Amino acid sequence: MGNNNKIKLNGQLRSYLKWPMVLSILLIAMNVSIYMINKRAGAVMTIFVAVYIAIVVMLYYHNRPVLLNELITFATQYGQVQKSLIRDLAVPYALLDSQGRLLWVNKKFAELTGKEKQYHKSITNIFSQITLDKLPEEGDEAEVNLSYGEQDFRIHMKSIVINELFNDSNIVNVESQDNHLIAMFLFDETELNEYIRKYEAETMVAGFLYLDNYDEALESVEEVRRSLLTALVDRKINKYFNDIDGLVKKIEKDKYFLVMRQSSLDELKANRFNILEEVKTVNIGNEMAVTISIGIGADTGTYSKNAEFGRMAIDLALGRGGDQVVVKEGDKIAYYGGKTQAVEKNTRVKARVKAHALKELMSSKDKVVVMGHKITDVDSFGAAVGIYRAAKALEKKAHIVINNPTTSIKPLMEGFLQNQDYEQDMFVSCHDAKEIVDENTMVVVVDVNKPSYTECEDLLYLTKTIVVLDHHRQGSEVIKNSVLSYIEPYASSACEMVAEILQYFADGVRIRNIEADSIYAGIMVDTDNFMQKTGVRTFEAAAFLRRCGADVSRVRKLFRENMEDYRAKGEAIKDAELFRDAFAISVSPSDYVESPTIVCAQAANELLNIIGVKASFVMTKYNDTVYVSARSIDEVNVQIIMERLGGGGHLNIAGCQFEDMEIPEAIDLLKETLTEMLDGGEI
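Given the sequence above, the corresponding structure tokens read:
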């Protein structure tokens, strides 16, 4: 004991042992007082006081080590009891050093891991998820959830600062230490997690299933067999959902209500909703295969909210062209299918209804402002010109928002700017448009349905009267505050839709030659000279524009390219690489080209002419942003690929943008996405 000079008595115990020595001062004072009264009595008392002080000093120095020994013996025994309790604790417990090495483990920890007390290696060797960066810093706590064997554990780790253990003691103090220890507790949450999983699996989800082309499919089969086709489709749908313990209720001739467990939904996701393909196999001589759309709502907390989300999901599925599944789980939206072209509707009833609604809305406003998407292309421009003409037919003040005209639309714009019949403020910038738009203005958005992609997003919040006309499939980001929305994914172009609207808009709408040229040019560009996405209504719209004075030769001259653009396109085609034997990937130069994004899109179209190419992706860097143009013919849905990368578009015409990224990084990201989707069976 005497050798350990670092251990000293401290606090109340030290004071208690010194009290007899302190009281000796009182006796000395008393002795002095007696001396003053009687010297002989004082002398006698001095002897007794001296003996008392000698005994007190002797006892203090003799008993101190004995007392310390007793205290340490008690502390040791007390510690042994505590250690015994921790050793037999029902919860696995371990003590680690600051570097995560095991110092001591209790019985339960040893039983669980099969490690003996002599095992002093890193905890990472036992639990690979607990790396050095997961350990708590000095004075902190940390938690990690992991699975070990067949059990789930919540591991709580608490840092213990060594000097704090002794600072709290009033008996001894020890020289400060710099290290800290980590106490680790393992709480078994296997049963709890099992019940949580069961609860989540049993949660009900709601959805809707619509037959996309019910009437068209029935018309394609002889009348006596129509009931058989309906019965076979019914049977296929009911059997499919009954097999996964789901409930199907027919609510209309071509609409069904679905209810199933979350576990059933997970099973459908794993199978990527193969009901989409199974329904198409129903064939009793019908020329047109039946396709379905499904919208499912889940993970909202209430059944009514799930049904509401299911309704939103089916609207989104139909807005994207049908033949697909949209699952809306909380804020997340997932898309499945959508690999086939949207079926063209032969009836123009919808176009007529929308035209009349547009006329009513436009009549109630003083001004009309039309805008397309950023980096305006010919389709967006032509559609805007068509709406401009509709506004002028009602004698309304109209403007078209274009910020930076590209080389593709400059020739068309020049025709209007040099024509005395058109006002100088026909085309306005975003800044000017914000000054024009007020509550008495209608804003018409053409060729885009994503707010962030519009030429001037701020206009959407300056008026309540917003109309959207678009042919792109809808994504999760939509213009929510529109009073009229006409989105037809099967239309070849926005110009086709506008041409139809103009036919029903008002009697005697006279479209001028230059306007007809612009709208006709938009159809030509988006259909790649009537080679893609052309339906009966596309040619009907073109015929209407031809009758209005559109000149094919004039339009062709407008599309002629300058030498730099042609050279850049050739360079992109020359340098293209074939990825996975099916995807052409290339980079289009932007340094000597005035409108790199247009050339980029044209190069992507050209690459589809190569045998074996199922889809093409051409990139260019413009204004610190990498633009990607994606094109396909019919085998690959480039829309879902671009959506995965934050973009969107059509089944065979799509694109996306990467900000703050270089082209090599963008190519690597595209290749990773393609590989992931190919291996996962998504494309």
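The longest helix spans residues 39-87. Try to locate this feature in the token string yourself.
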